[in-house]
Recover the amino acids of this structure.
């Protein structure tokens, strides 16, 4: 093989490995994947990460919480189940049911602020409405 060819192969291999490493780091971090047309805007993602993701994600410790809502898979759901989950999100935020009271008692910082709740709620409402058009 010519030296030039070998060099090209080496460069391609290095690029492939570094891309893979990059993807892995992203998967380990709390980066939310979005599928289809529904995406989490930055502001919404920030609220979810800070206030909901710990329980409602594949890494969450409570199976009940994961079954009730999983932000990582939510955007990949079919329209109807996605709308139903989004409606639930609006409902629990309206009633101030999430994060759970017992969590807030242990850690007051877990509480969601009115402003953050509105960001999340408005997004869930708009997205659900758009999906039903
Ligand atoms: C400390 C863990 C924890 C955190 C943090 C948390 N949740 Fe939950 N969530 C749960 C558990 C456990 C359930 C299921 C059992 C239940 O209904 O109490 C649940 C259920 C839900 C449900 C389904 C309710 C239903 O009636 O089907 C929604 C929607 C929800 N959570 C939204 C949120 C949102 C939005 C946030 C962030 C603002 C959040 N949760 C933060 C633990 C958590």
């Amino acid at each position: 093989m010519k030296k030039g060819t070998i060099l090209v192969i080496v460069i391609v291999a290095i690029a492939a490995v570094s891309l893979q490493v990059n993807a892995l780091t992203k998967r380990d971090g709390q980066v939310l994947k979005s599928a289809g047309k529904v995406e989490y805007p930055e502001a919404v993602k920030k609220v979810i990460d800070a206030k909901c993701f710990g329980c409602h994600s594949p890494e969450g410790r409570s199976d009940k919480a994961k079954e009730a809502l999983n932000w990582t898979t939510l955007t990949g759901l079919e329209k109807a189940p996605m709308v139903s989950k989004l409606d639930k999100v609006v409902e629990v935020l309206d009633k101030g049911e999430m994060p759970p009271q017992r969590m807030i008692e242990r850690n007051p910082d877990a509480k969601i602020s009115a402003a953050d709740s509105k960001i999340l709620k408005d997004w869930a409402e708009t997205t659900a409405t758009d999906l039903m058009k």
In short: The pocket of heme C is lined by residues 51-52, 54-56, 62, 64-65, 68-69, 88-89, 92-93, 98-100, 103, 112 (CB under 6 Å).
